[in-house]
Fold:
Amino acid sequence: MLGQRTRSDQAAVAAEWSLDATNTASPTGAHKSPRAVPAGTLVVWMLGLLLFVDVLLLSANVAYRIGDGQDSGFWGTFAATAWDGDTDGSHIEIWGHIQLLLAAGLLVMLARQHKQLVFTAWAWLMFVVVVDDFFQVHESLGEVMAGLFDADAVAGLATKDLGELLTWGVLALLLVPPLVLGFFKASSWARRRTVVLGAVLALLVVFAIGLDMANILLHDHISGPATTVVTLAETAGELVPMTLFLAYTVKVAVLPSRRSA
Structure:
């Protein structure tokens, strides 16, 4: 029985993004309205809509780069720096914040409904990420912590960049322990959802921190167009995981398949 349950859990994690028809099927013998739209279909359409908005904003970001500040003609429509996803307070950044806050709200609801501390920890993480990004916490504290380094640069990174990395390390101390504690206290159902959320978080970290630091290191060694491509990839790599966070939390809320204690 234990081996059978383990195989079942592994299969559930692997198929987590699949929309099992049994989740939306009516009970045997129950009347099903011909106009009813399966919840799984609504989730797919919602994900498609969110990604469509992402594509529009990222396309506007590309137009901003192509226009290169032109204030007339077609490209002039995207001349404002608000269309640049690499700018603080840009349309893309605000859209990402909205999605993370909605996801955080849903996770708080799920935590209360299913009595799972790990969902509260995820909501806390997303809230901190938004606050940090919106108020530029890691940039401000990074400048303060830069004073801890005597050299002008270490391993190709300016002291300010090192200070930002150190700030992220401090923030991690506020975010990781609640997640770890919540994970070990969670049911197997909530743990499987946490694995998926963790994969999305890893993708976000790779682009938001990893590619950002790589861009800084390579800035003086690659051409302007290549730098632009890396910057656009970083922006897209930050925005899409935020969309996946929201889409997945909606899926968990409306399709809580095979919930177990």
Remarks:
- The first helix runs from residue 2 to 14.
